[in-house]
Structures are given as structure tokens and as C-alpha cells.
Write a structure and sequence with these properties.
The structure is a single chain. It contains 7 helices and 8 strands. It is of the alpha+beta class and 203 residues long. The protein has one domain: Maf protein (Alpha-Beta Complex), CATH 3.90.950.10. Strands 1, 2, 3, 4, 5, 6, 7 and 8 form an 8-stranded mixed β-sheet that branches. A hairpin with a 2-residue loop joins β3 and β4.
Length: 203
Amino acid sequence: MLQSAEPRLILASASSARRAVLSACSLIFEAKAAAIDEGEVKRSARTEGMSAEDTALLLAELKAVRIATRDPEALVIGCDQLLVCDGTWFDKPPDLAAAREQLLALRGRPHTLVTAVLCLRRGQRVWHHVAKPRLHMRAFSDGFLDAYLAAEAEHVTSTVGAYRLEGPGVQLFDRVEGEHASILGLPLLPLLGFLRQHGVLAA
């Protein structure tokens, strides 16, 4: 068996990309959305001078705690991702107009996806990791941007970068540094290593 029956795994996320990452490597898990006020947490974190790394971990932990309180024996996986470009934090754009503005701000510049993952069990954080893949957005034309937004209209507001690297969004870039799964929102190889050490996966 690749995976033990206990502890059960719960992904504290509504992200289809994160679910796909875990499913692709044959992990058996449940996915449960954990609603928190991410905007308020980020505003407070900036006011308090917290780093992007610590803020992403805090958000991931808050999501995991929300699920873990209802199922303490499960191993709950919390995740969060912040996009940082020259010190500015970007959120998921609320609409197409905001997505366009965001992509114009990122055009021709590199940015970092600060991607946190942590695991909780019995109310305790047992492991965490922060990955920081670096993406270099090319200086695409206005015409390309119009065509891209038309093609991806239903998806651009669902991701922090207004792009899906697993879809047409990859055409926005000329260089990507880092694990593909981390870019999608879940540092997979570090997580699998922890799960082996924890006895959840066969070594």
C-alpha cells in the first residue's frame, strides 16, 4: 500500500488546482473549503509589518484550524499563496477589469508566488513549508492581453495571479523557476517527504 488508512488526510481548500495536484499522485483525501476573511487577515498583517512568508503561513493555518476543530484526528493540510511583485501584494482580481490592470502591472516584470503549506493534527502544527517560485512575465502585446482575457474570462478571477499556468496562462511567461505544483498553490515534493516521515506514505 502506498498510503496508510490512518490518519485520514483532509485538504482545507476549495482550490480545484490543489485538489488536482494531490489526486494526480494518487493520494486519498477529502477536500473541505475553509472560509476565512483573507482580506482582513492580510490588511492586519501588513499593518503589523508581517512578512509575506509569515502571512501566507498564517492564512494556511487559519484555514487548517477551521477544519481541524471539527475533525481533530485527521491530518489537515492548509495552504495559501501570495503574489509579491516589488514589495506589492496582489489579491485575486474581483473582475475582468481588475485582472487586466493587474496583468498590465506585472507585464515584463518578475514576481514571486509565496506558497505556504502546513499540516495540523490534534490541534497542533506538526509541519510547515514555504516555497517561493519566481515567474518572469513577458512583455506581451495589448492585443495578446485582449485575446487572453477573452479566452480565460471565467478563470482569471479565481487565481491570485489572474492566470492558470496549467492553461493558457503559461503563454504570459518566458521563464519560470520553481516546482510546478508550488506555482499551482501546493508545494508537493516537500509535502510528500513529510507524509513519508509521518508514516502516512510508504517510504
